Amino acid sequence: MENNSEWNRLWCGPKKWSCGLMNEYEGQNKQLNQLRFKYLCKILMSNVNFLKKDVLKSRLTTEILKQYNKDVMYMGVLEQNFESLNEGIKQMDKLSKKLLQLPTTAIRDLVILFMIDEDATDVQQLHLIADIIKNLRGSMKLKVDFLDAYM
Q1: Residue 1: its pLDDT value, please?
Q2: Could you tell me the pTM of the whole model?
Q3: SS3 letters across 39-89
Q4: Which of 37, 128, 129, 130 is the most exposed place for a label (fewest CB within 10 A)?
């Protein structure tokens, strides 16, 4: 930082010193807090600090517990998703069994309804009907009820 001395003999006080901080307002408070945090971390993490191991242990414990709590929450969500998938698979099996139990007249009606190739074999027609019904947007209960109506 420069000073106002004349010819390096007379001390006339400092010129306008710039220390890199913003003018006083919230931005400067943020900068000061960052500097305090940085300074505190340097003190805590120095090799001279006798509590360094305890500080590290505490921080690592906090991080592990935070991750554990997140994982527990995610595991709950995953379990719900797996239960939902299992329920969906059971419903798909139920839907497939219903399709296999359909009488031939109902299959013929569905072939006409969904405009499926009438020259295809019965097995091909059943597969096409199953694909169409499975890909429809709507609840599985609605699909099963729809097939029940054709029984």
Answers
A1: 47
A2: 0.41
A3: HHHHHHHCCCCCCHHHHHHHHHHHHHHHHHHHHHHHHHHHHHHHHHHHHHH
A4: 37
